[in-house]
Here is the input.
Amino acid sequence: MSRYACCDKHGLSRRDLLKGVAAGAVTAASPLAATAAKEGKKMTTTETMGQAPVAACKKVAADAPGAKAKVYFSRKIDAQTLIDLYERINEGIYGKVAIKLHTGEKNGPNILPRDMVKAFQATVPDSVIVETNTLYEGDRFTTEQHLETLKVNGWTFCPVDIMDAEGTVNLPVRGGKHFKEVSMGGHIVNYDSMIVLTHFKGHAMGGFGGSMKNIAIGCADGRIGKAQVHAIDDVSKPWDQWPAKERLMETMAESAKAVIDYFGKHIVYINVMRRMSVDCDCAGTAAAEPTIEDVGILASTDILAIDQACVDLVYATPHNHDLVERIESRVGMHQLTAMRELKMGSDRYTLIEV
Here is the structure.
């Protein structure tokens, strides 16, 4: 008998049990969207067509079965736009709210602007920023080091909860082929809802870091969970020495799915496509200077749709060579495949420009 069977029998969710234990419609990569962008036009929700192909990404036919997810998009990157887009997707957000943000290594040049995040956080009642410690030995390896880095980077305008500061909790993975459960920062079960606020950019191992990577690695605790997901004895090894690179994309997806399953309909996703270095904010001041233009902000209740849309926008944006090379050389597209296989969302979406 499953250890969760008793709670199912009595009408309690796994989430309730874990709490108790813990105390315009068009795809952006399409020719129509590209033409409209050049002419400065906005797409309407009646202008619908199938998803255009991008390198290493399978085309989805316009008449393919299944509903399309809504992804809201604005080319403006500022606090008010962030707030406006969030208001279009926040119906399920209630209670105590975790804002999952990558706060970065010390003095990272590409992290999201503090003033923009501060203005946004102030509009979300009972919200705090949440983070976890790192597996690698950097500026956020221990809670003490992490707290100091938060001060240096200016994340002082609201509480920041380092979720693994006082232990861990295992969240189940439904339908996983690598994991039955993943170890997360223990405080995650203290929250009713989560806003995944992501700086979309490249990544040294994942190819790109979107909403999925933000919660897959960012909610896993720094010692057990992150080691589970990376499945390697030394994360400092060069990428060409990592075994089974597709496996990393799959384990990340399963870790993210554990978070999604926990929050259910009470989790939303916002990706900010600005200063998109090929390197993650984990690289701090060593991150490569971005070579691709800033794109905008996207918001959705569908994690696969928003990350798919961001990848499509990268391929449709000029001067994308460096970021595209990083995505393809790290088999980053397999992130999307893994999410699709786990039924984490839809890769068919309508991009609604506002």
Summary: Confidence is low (pLDDT under 50) at residues 1-14, 20-64. The CA atoms of residues 138 and 314 lie 29 Å apart. The chain is about 30% helix and 15% strand. The first strand starts at residue 69 and ends at 74.
